[in-house]
Amino acid sequence: FREWETKSTLTTCPYCGVGCQLELITKGNQVVDSKPYKGPSNNGLLCVKGKFGYPFINHPDRLKTPLIKKNGKFEEASWEEALNLIVSKIKETKEKYGANALGGFTSARCTNEENYLFQKLFRAAIGTNNIDHCARLCHASTVSGLATTLGSGAMTNSINEVLDSDVIFIIGSNTTENHPVIATKMKQAKKKGAKIIVADPRKIELADKADIFLQIKPGTNIAVLNGMMNYIIENELYDKDYIEERTENFEEVKESLIEYTPEKVAEICGVNKDDIIKAARMYAESDKAGIYYAMGITQHITGTNSVMAISNLALMCGNVGKENAGVNPLRGQNNVQGACDMGGLPSDLPGYQKVFKEEIAEKFEKAWGVSLPREVGMTMSEILDSVKMLYIMGENPMLSDPDINHVKHSLERIDFLVVQDIFLTETAELADVVLPAASFAEKDGTFTNTERRVQRVRKVIESIGDSKADWQILMEIMNKLGYPQKYRHPSEIMEEIASVTPQYGGITYDRIETEGIQWPCLDKDHPGTKYLYKDAIARGKGLFFPVYHTGSAETTDKEYPYILTTGRVLYQYHTRTMTGRVEKLNEKVPESYIEINEVTANKLGVKDSEKVKVTSRRGSIDIKVKVTDIVEDNVMFIPFHFAEGAANYLTNTKADSAAKIPELKVAAVNVEKI
Ligand code: SF4
Predict the structure, then answer these.
(1) d(Cα 595, Cα 490) in Å, to the nearest integer?
(2) In angstroms, how far is CA 279 from the centroid of its own chain?
(3) Cα 52 to Cα 603: distance, rounded to the nearest angstrom
(4) Last residue within a domain, chosen from 271, 296, 330
(5) So which domain of life are we looking at (predicted)?
(6) Is residue 177 in some structural domain?
(7) How do beta strands 67-70 and 433-436 pair?
C-alpha cells in the first residue's frame, strides 16, 4: 500500500445483519471514507453506521501486539511467546481435567472461515463441543423453534421481497434502529400500498407508519399471536387447502387456541380487542403477508414458544413457501447467521449437522482425520460457570450478557482466559492473554447476512500493528497443538466448508464475486435460494405446535414495581467496541439513559435529564432519565450498549428451557430519584 495512493474496495458492512455492500476508500493504509454500493440487499442504501462508522479501523486504541498479564498487569509479548503460553495451557488443562474443562466463544463479528476454524480447533484439535456464541443471546430460540416447526432456523424469504408484500407484520423488532435499511424498504412498501401491523411494547418509529399498532405489555407475544389465530379460526379465515396439503397437527393447535378469545387476550396484552381482530383480519385476508421479528420475540423464557406461535400463524394462512411472505427472523450482527451456519453451537457441526448423529460424526472424522466427541457441549452461561480455561474470540460478555456482576465473578473464577479482539474490551481487561486481531477491513473472507446471502469481505488495508487475521491465529494454534492446518487463503477454507456443509456445497469465491449467493446452494450449478420451502418444507410438512401464554420469569411486586426492557439504538452498536470510537456516531447518543413515561416520571418526582438509581434483584445502576411517550406507564427501557449505566447489571439470567436464551427483555426493577 503506497501512502499517496487512493483506492476504492468493495466489501460488506461490519455492523448489522442486513449485509449492505459498501466501498471503503483508502489513502495509503488509512480508511478515509465509505460509499454506498448497489448490493443485492441494500440497492445503494446505507444507514449512518455503514456511512460514518469506519473510523474505528485506524483508531489509535487498536490492539497492536499480544499482551500477557504478569502480576496483574499487561505486558507486551511476542506472538511466539503468547501462542506458546496458550498452547501449553490448553495441553495442561486437557491433561489435568479433560477436554470438557475447556470452552470457547466464537464470534458473530468474524468471517465464516474464522468461525469454521474456531469450531474445528475446539472439536478436532482439543476434543470438546463446548463452543457457543452470541446467538445464544439473540436467536437461539429461532434456531430451536423453527427447526421444530419447519426444519431450519433461518429467514425464509429475502429482504427485497418486503417491497411486494401486501401485509408486513412486525412483532418484537425495532427495525428502524436495528436493521435500518430493511425499515426503509418497509416504508417504501407502504408507499406502494402495503399495510403494516406493529406489535411492540414501545411506540417505535414504525408504529407511526403502521395501519394497526398493538402496544402490548412486555412478555405477552404468545397471547397476542394466539388471540389473532383464535379469531382467524373462529371466522374460518385460514387456508384450508394449504393446511391439508403442506402441514400436520392443525387440529391440536386449533383446540389449544379456544381459550385465547380476543377479549381475554386484550386484557393480558393491555390492548384493544378490536385492534387484535383488525390485525387478524388484515393478516389473514391478504394474499402475501410477511412476519418480521427479532429479539422482542426471542429474548424471553418463552422465546422458542413465541417463535413457534409465529410459525403457527404463518402456516395457518399459507404464508410459508410463498414469495413476498414468510417467517423472517432479522439476525442482529453482521455474521450471526454465518457463525450459526459454521457450527458455532454446542450441538451442531457446520450446516446444523448434529454432533450426536453417528453418520454425521463419522463424516467429519473422515474429513478432519480425527475422532470427534459425540456429546453435546455446554451453552454460554454453562461454559462461564464451569470451564477451567476459556477462549473468547470477538465477544464482550462483560457488557452483552445478563447479570454482569455474575459474569465478572465467573470470568474471574476461570483459571486461564484468552481474549482475541481488535480493542481492549471490558472482557479483555480480565484476560490472562490478549491477542490482537485484524478488523474486517484487513482480511479476506465471507459474511452471511440475515437473508442467508454469503457475501465477500475484502482486504482493504494491511493489518494494524502486529495484529493478525483471526483465521491465521487459529491456524497457528492448531499447528502448535500438533494438528497441522495449511490454508494459504480463506478461499481454501471455504472450499473445505463447501465440502462438508450441504447448504454451502456450491459456494466458491469465484461465484460470489459480485452478488453473493443465498443458501441452500447445493452444488456448483445451483443458483442459490431466494425463498425457502417453495416446493417442500425442510422437515417434510410444516408442524403446528400448540403453545400457551405463561408470562415472564419476573413479575412486578412492591419491592420492584416496574418492568424494564432493553434494546439498541441506531447510532451505537452492541457494546460500542467499534461505534464508541466514532465521533460522528457518539455525538448523537453519547451516554446511557432510561426511558420513563411522563405519568411514571410524575409518580417518581423526576424530570427529564435528572438522575435515578435503578435496582433489580441482581444489581443497581445510576442513569439519566429521558421522559418520553415511547414507553407506557410502569414500563421502562435502557439501551444496553454503554459500560457506564450498563443495563445488563439489571437483566435476568433466567432462560428459555429449550434454547437456553436468557430473558433480557423483561426484568422487574425499582427506580428512585437520586
Ligand atoms: Fe451496515 Fe446494517 Fe446499516 Fe446496512 S443497515 S449500513 S448493514 S449497519
Answers:
(1) 45
(2) 28
(3) 40
(4) 330
(5) Bacteria
(6) yes
(7) antiparallel
- Quick one: cell of 217? 405489555
On whether residue 485 sits in a domain, the answer given is yes
Is 28 inside a domain boundary?
Answer: no
Is 488 found in the same domain as 427?
yes
- H helices of 131-214, in order, are 140-149, 175-178, 180-191, 205-209
The model's pLDDT over 326-339, given as tens digits with 9 standing for 90+, comes to 999 999 889 999 99
Number of other CB atoms surrounding residue 522 within 10 Å: 15
The count of C-alpha atoms lying within 13 angstroms of the C-alpha of 205, restricted to the half-sphere facing its C-beta, is 13
- Atom 1, ligand 1: which residue's CA is nearest? 50
Residue with the bigger pLDDT between 153 and 90: it is: 90
The answer to whether residues 404 and 362 belong to one domain is yes
Return the ligand 1 atom nearest residue 15 CA: 8
The CA 280 to ligand 1 mean position distance, Å, reads 32
- Distance (Å) of CA 240 to CA 149, 246, 317: 18, 10, 8
Residues 399 and 360 in one domain: yes
Closest ligand 1 atom number to CA of residue 51: 6
- Looking at the fold, whether 193 and 83 belong to one and the same domain comes out as no
- Expressed as residue numbers, the domain containing 71 is 67-137+334-448+463-506
How close is the Cα of 48 to the center of ligand 1, in Å? 8
What is the CATH classification number for the domain harbouring 210? 3.40.228.10
Reading the block at residue 493, the C-alpha cell is 477454507
Q: What is the CATH number of the domain that holds 498?
A: 3.40.50.740
Sign of CA dihedral 393, 647, 386, 297: negative
What is this structure's pTM? 0.95
Distances (CA, A) of 614 to 65, 119, 646: 39, 39, 11
**Distance, CA of 580 to CA of 593 (rounded, Å):** 16
Tell me the one-letter amino acid at 602.
Answer: N
529: in domain: no
- Asked which of 280, 313, 330 is the last residue of a domain, the reply is 330
pLDDT in tens, 617-643: 999 999 999 999 999 999 999 999 999
Do 297 and 216 belong to one domain? yes
ipTM over 0.95: yes
- Which DSSP letter does residue 217 get? P
Dist CA 159 CA 205 (whole Å): 19
pLDDT at 70: 96
Residues 411 and 497 in one domain: yes
Q: Which atom of ligand 1 is nearest to the CA of 182?
A: 5
Q: Domain total for the chain? A: 3
Residues 81, 127 within the same domain: yes
Question: Which of 10, 15, 21, 24 for mutating ligand 1's site (highest number of atoms within 8 Å of CB)?
Answer: 15
